[in-house]
Amino acid sequence: MIKSSKVLVICASPRHNGNSAILAAAAAEGAKKAGHEVETVFLDDYVEGMLRDCRTCRNVEGNCSIDDRYSELFLGKFLPADAVIFATPLHYYGMTGRLKTFFDRIFCFTSDSAPDGSSHAQSLQNKQIGLLISCEESYPGATLGLVAQFQELTRYNRQSFVGYCVGIANSRGEIIHDPTDPVASAHKLGEHIMDLTETDYRFDSERSNNVWSTK
Questions:
Q1: Residue 54's domain is classified under what CATH number?
Q2: Which pLDDT tens digit goes with each residue over 197-212?
Q3: Mean pLDDT of the region 82-104
């Protein structure tokens, strides 16, 4: 029996029915097909305020005082998840500003000065991470910076960046016409999010000749 995991899909687009949302829905459907517990959220329902100076921003209990639903998302949904799939349009050759704010504000909950910061930092680790990008440019270099940023973010957070896909589209919904079929790729990423592995070998790493088990 396949073990059921918690998969969180975060859509960072301000369009709830746009191309990124289509990719997010496909990934969620794939994860459900694999038997996982899946929840999809839209970032603009939770994140409003930008990172401030925590030395002056924390309330008397030491908690973040920014008045939005970030803590609900981060503590109640992100940390308990075994896998997180982010869907974002390419905004000025990077992730959306709201998604960058999501990552910036992780510090508010994991630093030494935060209540239960060390516990939250431990819960941040060992997650499977996937990335879905909608972009109007087919030039491969357009999205390389964002992919590289996710590689570094996940490395820093001790998570595994196990896959990404890019769909070419601009007008709302036209991603379904991309001949590379990124919707199917997003579905497959969601379906196999817990099966994929991240490897980073060195020339002297001990490893099998096989990438996948033949049993």
A1: 3.40.50.360
A2: 998 899 899 988 888 8
A3: 97
